[in-house]
Amino acid sequence: MALPLLDYPLSSRNHRVCGYEVPSEEQPRIYSAVNQPSAEEMDELIWSAYYQVFHQQQMLSSTRQPALESQLRNGQISVRGFIRGLATSDAFRRLNYDSNNNYRFVEICVQRLLGRQVYSDREKLAWSIVLATQGLPAFIDALLDSQEYLQNFGEHQVPYQQRRILPGRSQGESPFFRTARYSEDYRDRLPQPITAQTIKPWGLQAFLQGSNKDVVLWLVVSLIFVIGSYYLLPIMGLLPQISPY
């Protein structure tokens, strides 16, 4: 049985109020397939969809989905269906879901699919429960089928970061694509550089405590056997003496 989405407060955000800014380069460009775009315009729309879902950090040849592109060009799926296919692709799963915890992955998807920051940790928890109990495809469906997505972007428009312009500031909020896709827990699992502080002096007691006792015993017995064979067997006459001359 699927758990219902937990309630979370909608804190005040810039995108939730009407804007009266003067149009400038800070305003996002809207890509829509409503008016039957030309081939060149469709190319730009597809590129913007890849850029929105994968961001510039993941714009790789391996992330392309030729089958989805063909379906979109032929009118078999809508822009929302194309976004759904990109967000549920193996490439998106590998680059984002497999390399992050659920909380960071929820934050990534809210930014890229709904075009806004998460409201609070409560919202992260609510969507993380959906992700954990229903799986990745159902979580993506819940975001794309939400009233928020349909009201802001509809069926034929590529999502974008909403209302980056802030009152009293010459520049808007930092674009989401500049945010690292990895969280702190993934960073902490990476190999750390070797420094003077990380190098510990060697000690026999510490070596024996941190080593496998069976392996150490095997190495000691093998060393004794080799040394004994080299020195004792020639003395006992079992092996010929090897002259250095």
Descriptive overview:
The chain has helices at 39-54, 66-73, 79-87, 90-97, 102-114, 121-134, 136-144, 147-152, 184-189, 204-209, 213-235. By secondary structure, it is mostly helical. It folds into two domains: 14-189, Orthogonal Bundle (serine acetyltransferase, domain 1), CATH 1.10.3130.20; 204-235. It is elongated, with a radius of gyration of 30 Å. The chain starts with 38 loop residues before the first helix and ends in a 10-residue tail after the last helix.
Reading the helices and strands in chain order gives HHHHHHHHHHH
Low-confidence stretches: none
End-to-end Cα distance, whole Å, is 86 Å
Number of strands: 0
Alpha carbon gyration radius: 30 Å
Number of folding domains? 2
The largest β sheet comes out as: none
Structure, briefly:
This protein is mostly helical and 245 residues long. The protein contains 11 helices and no strands.
Annotation keywords:
serine acetyltransferase, domain 1, 11 helices, single chain, 245 residues, 48% helix
SSE diagram, text form:
Elements: H1 39-54, H2 66-73, H3 79-87, H4 90-97, H5 102-114, H6 121-134, H7 136-144, H8 147-152, H9 184-189, H10 204-209, H11 213-235
Helix pairs in contact: 1-3, 2-3, 5-6, 6-7
